[in-house]
Design a protein that fits this description.
Blueprint: H1 2-16, H2 18-28, H3 41-69, H4 74-84, H5 86-100, H6 110-130, H7 137-144, H8 151-189, H9 202-227, H10 237-253, E1 256-258, H11 261-265, E2 271-273, E3 278-280, H12 288-314, H13 337-344, H14 346-355
Antiparallel strand pairs: 1-2, 2-3
Helix pairs in contact: 1-2, 3-4, 3-5, 3-12, 3-13, 4-6, 4-13, 5-6, 5-12, 6-8, 6-9, 8-9, 10-12
Length: about 350
């Protein structure tokens, strides 16, 4: 009798609470069969993602140390350090997600918060390239020189565009933070439902809000960067933009999405990596969490190794190396300690963001 009752409740849950379906589906295949000997796919993911995460962090921290130890231009280099920090943060979060399993949903949304902070620091970096303060026409013209018949008009256009793009980037910080908080709350009370696009649950609404906010910020930043390309030929800002935006772009492409509601109700979810279009089905060997959490985590960690190397070239320390004899003063302190403190001081970060609005 109890078995019949349990089955009836399960049928009701499938109709009215898709989140319950996901939870039970994950629990049913959590203890997946080994793929070889006693090795499970989750353990294999840990063995692969762990070293990749460590290598990405090591390379990124080494690069950040070079900037901190050779900090001849704190205004620019502190922002480069913050942008680079996105790589180890992504790698650590993804590696931790393998251990967290179904609870990774509480951590993943915060990747977007760190992404938004990196985005606005990229905007502020471009503004520093244009002018150390972006507050005076003379400062702007001294940096990139006259490039038009009306230098005053060129400055006013650049200043207006920079203010607009900074506001666009700032709103993404606010929205991403609120979405992350609401995601955690709604997931905790059981109304988020990551596998459902029903308007009765928070997932679809939060996804739409975040997508619109990030699109506004990214489009504004791309337009601003491309518009200033000819004013900043020495800084290779398009290369910097591509190296940075590829991380965000791949984040979108690699999202695993639930496609087939009927299959989910049959406890056989069909999943897809949007960048490949390949379909996966959980089995005795590959659990639902392996395909939705562990496998994407491996890909992320592998990519972060590549990006950590790419940043060495895109955000090179060469322009900040002091070569003249007798002028070897750097402001980063011993082992770049002061440089790291300046880059990650939350008060300074908040002040720079607010001052840029």
């Amino acid at each position: 009798m109890s078995g019949t009752t349990d089955t009836s409740l399960w049928q009701v849950a499938k109709i009215f609470q898709p989140g319950v379906v996901l939870e039970r589906m994950a629990n049913d295949v959590l203890d997946a069969a080994p793929i070889s000997g006693s090795l499970t796919f989750t353990q294999l993911c840990i063995y692969i993602a762990g070293p990749c995460m460590g290598l990405a962090c090591l390379i990124s921290l080494g690069f950040m140390f070079l900037h901190a130890a050779h900090m001849s231009n704190p205004a620019e280099q502190t922002k480069i350090i913050r942008i680079t920090a996105l790589i180890p943060i992504y790698a650590i979060i993804q590696f931790a997600s393998i251990y967290l399993g179904a609870s990774a949903i509480y951590l993943i949304p915060w990747m977007n918060v760190f992404e938004s902070i990196a985005l606005i620091n990229f905007v502020l970096l471009i503004c520093d390239y244009l002018s150390p303060t972006m507050k005076s026409q003379s400062g702007y013209l001294d940096v990139h020189g006259p490039h038009s018949t009306d230098d005053g008009e060129a400055f006013r256009e650049a200043l207006a565009m920079s203010q607009k793009v900074r506001r666009s980037a700032f709103q993404y910080i606010v929205v991403a933070t609120l979405v992350a908080i609401v995601t955690d709350i709604t997931q905790a009370v059981g109304i988020y439902c990551n596998n459902s696009n029903s308007v009765h649950f928070a997932h679809i609404w939060l996804t739409i809000i975040r997508a619109i906010s990030s699109a506004v910020a990214i489009v504004a930043i791309i337009k601003f960067t491309t518009a200033q390309k000819r004013n900043l030929p020495r800084h290779q800002i398009i290369f910097k933009l591509v190296a940075f935006k590829l991380i965000i772009f791949l984040n979108l492409l690699q999202t695993v999405r639930h496609l087939d509601t009927a299959a989910a109700q049959a406890n056989k979810p069909q999943l897809v990596f949007s960048f490949a279009g390949a379909r996966f089905t959980p089995s005795a060997t590959f659990s639902y969490l392996d395909l939705t959490v562990s496998l994407p985590a491996i890909i992320y960690c592998l990519e972060m190794v590549v990006f950590s190397v790419l940043f060495y070239f895109a955000y090179s320390t060469r322009p900040y190396m002091v070569k003249q004899p007798g002028s070897s003063f750097y402001q980063g302190g011993v082992f770049g300690i002061f440089g790291f403190v300046a880059a990650f001081n939350p008060v300074d970060v908040a002040r720079e963001i607010v001052d840029g609005l």
